[in-house]
């Protein structure tokens, strides 16, 4: 989450963009992201240079032959000079980072447009961004996207909203991705799940004493110093992370995010993964996602690969996750509680598919406030393995996530029940006052319902009962007393 001071600066920047004519929030976020990308590229290049020196390797600067594109070389220009230089030199440079090589980044940046309308607005925006302490923030573009949507009190198009970073880290921890696996988010937005998965892998291969962590759990200095083989780095950078989204602005932001985290050739593509244009191949080892919940798909556009007879996106995505996983592949995905409990034929069929064709390992209830202020929808997290057999499902009822459960979402400890979820899941899905294991047959008898409340154990207070003979004697005594009182009452009449 953004600190109050940074929020104030982003609000100021957003108001300036709005007043300058960039009223569409996605357009404003995209233009902000370009400027942040320009700044962060130089920061990243400096970090890579120092790392290369530490390893006694030769460093090839991304700015080789283009020193005038460095943020530090033009940020102090006068307004008109800066506007001309950024528009004619710097922006074309970031669009063509791969020097004409046909990679996904080049394809999607080809039509990118610099849309800041006037020189004075650009100069003010550069001044504000230069003041923002971005440092090693894992997903600053995504944080800005989340904050602006929150300020607009909207969940975006088709129920789209960003998953909180600490929830993402928990989900990644539960599926524990590694080098050599293909990791996919079929509704990737700004790329938050993919970045978190990359950081999780780097952390596993970074000496513990080198890792730094913010109070909210955000890790830093993940250098992967234990990854010794160059081919493992190549695999991690080129053939590990895959993301899809139908919104071109999200694609560009995700591409820039991945590049700023060291993935120089990201596999991020513009695709509607529910439509006929997307090939549902079962090739991924890990699926991480929080797809748009609201909305329906035009029946004529829905992929023929789906078995479910529905136009509801929340159910189609559940089947899509299953279809994209290779046998033995693992998923951790967010779904609305309607998917867990609704009794419609399509909902029951979707749950039955996951229970019978996969090993459904866990259903974790997330506090509705976790997605505030732009959504109060109640959600759950499904963790499942394709091709396994469901014998028992572990239900965990999260009561706290480390932030206040109101619109303000003030920081408490940034963790709440999350460490307990991870610990109990990894220890064999242990039962507690917040978690239970439910046999498959019990779930089947309950219409394949996956709501925690349906199976939660109710503790009954034990009552001591006397022996039958004593109870009979007591009843007879009471009967005599009542008869006596009635006789006395009759005499008084």
Textual characterization of the structure:
The chain folds into two domains: 1-135, Ferritin; 156-455, Vaccinia Virus protein VP39 (Rossmann fold, 3-Layer(aba) Sandwich). Helix 2 (25-54) packs parallel to helix 11 (248-260). By secondary structure, the protein is of the alpha/beta class. It has helices at 4-19, 25-54, 71-74, 79-95, 104-109, 119-131, 140-151, 165-175, 192-204, 230-238, 248-260, 313-324, 337-341, 345-357, 418-426, 440-445, 452-455, 468-492; strands spanning 183-185, 212-213, 219-220, 241-245, 267-270, 284-289, 325-336, 358-366, 379-386, 392-397, 435-439. It is elongated. Strands 5-4-1-6-7-9-8-10-11 form a nine-stranded mixed beta sheet. It has a two-stranded antiparallel ribbon with strand order 2-3. It has 18 helices and eleven strands.
Q: Can you summarize this structure?
A:
The protein has 493 residues and is an alpha/beta fold.
Distinctive features:
9-stranded mixed beta sheet; 493 residues; alpha/beta; 18 helices; 2 domains; Ferritin
Which secondary structure elements does this structure contain, and how are they paired or packed?
Elements: H1 4-19, H2 25-54, H3 71-74, H4 79-95, H5 104-109, H6 119-131, H7 140-151, H8 165-175, E1 183-185, H9 192-204, E2 212-213, E3 219-220, H10 230-238, E4 241-245, H11 248-260, E5 267-270, E6 284-289, H12 313-324, E7 325-336, H13 337-341, H14 345-357, E8 358-366, E9 379-386, E10 392-397, H15 418-426, E11 435-439, H16 440-445, H17 452-455, H18 468-492
Parallel strand pairs: 1-4, 1-6, 4-5, 6-7, 8-10
Antiparallel strand pairs: 2-3, 7-9, 8-9, 10-11
Helix pairs in contact: 1-6, 2-6, 2-7, 2-11, 4-6, 8-9, 8-15, 12-14
